[in-house]
Structures are given as C-alpha cells and as structure tokens.
Amino acid sequence: MNEIAEGGCDVCIGGDNDNQPEFYREGIVKARKIHRCCECGDQISAGVKYHRFSGKWEGRVDVYTTCLPCSEIRASLCCGGWTFGALWEAAAETFFEDMTTGCLAKLKTAVAKEKLVGRWRKWKGLAA
C-alpha cells in the first residue's frame, strides 16, 4: 500500500521513558547561531525559532535543540515520554506500521505534517 490508511490514531511513537531529569528548563527561542535538530539532524539556521531543552539527567547537564516540526510531532504523537534523539528511530519501530490519517490530524502545522509524511514515505521505501 502506498497511501496512509484512513482512520483514527490508536498508536503512539515510542513508549515509556523512566529517565526523568533531576531538573530541566524548556522554551521556544530564536537561534543566534546555527544548531542541529537532535531528532532529524536538520540545520536550524540563525534567526529561526526552535525548542530548547536544558537539564540534568543522571548527573549530567545537557542541552537539546529541536526544530519546531519535530517538536510538534513529538508533543502530539509521543504518549508515554521520549528519549531525545530517538524520535524517528522510535517512529520506525513502533508507529509507522499503524500510522493513519487520524495521526496526521493531530498535527496543527503543514510543515510538521509534511515532515511526518516524508519520513513515513522514506520508511516505506517510496522516497529517496
């Protein structure tokens, strides 16, 4: 099948994540320099808004930058938590097989829908 199945969305990306931070801070900020999205690896150019997380996990302070489309996909379709940097691997393992049009409907922006469909098409072997 080369099309996304019709129906509601009864599937989530990923699963439970027990690795909770000791503390964290997050926000949407404007990039002052070039960053890379921790999920898709796309460049986040200076002047572009992105989702920034900083916190302490297992005794280590880290900062994670996420492009807004990946952030929206993660917020809308990850039900039991997530691990930074594993969104698309988890989608391939637990989500794409059962993804439906109802899952796309959970996303608000066209750019997030386009990114999700593009990744699904690549997973299906329909895109380069």
- Gyration radius, in Å: 15 Å
pLDDT average, as an integer?
91
| Largest β-sheet summary | 3 strands, antiparallel
Coarse structural class? alpha+beta
Query: DSSP helix count?
Result: 4
**Poorly predicted ranges (pLDDT <50, ≥5 residues)?**
none
Helix content: 25-40%
- Percent in strands: 15-25%
Strand order of the largest sheet: 1-4-5
Number of strands: 5
Oligomer: single chain
* C-alpha end-to-end distance: 17 Å
Shape, please? globular
Element pattern in H and E: EEEEEHHHH
Topology readout:
Layout: E1 23-30, E2 35-36, E3 43-44, E4 49-57, E5 60-67, H1 68-77, H2 87-94, H3 101-105, H4 110-124
Antiparallel strand pairs: 1-4, 2-3, 4-5
Question: How would you characterize the overall build of this protein?
Answer:
By secondary structure, the protein is of the alpha+beta class. Helix content is 30%, strand content 23%. It is built from 4 helices and 5 strands; from the N terminus they run βββββαααα. A hairpin with a 6-residue loop joins strand 2 and strand 3 (43-44). Helix 1 (68-77) packs across helix 4. The mean pLDDT is 91.
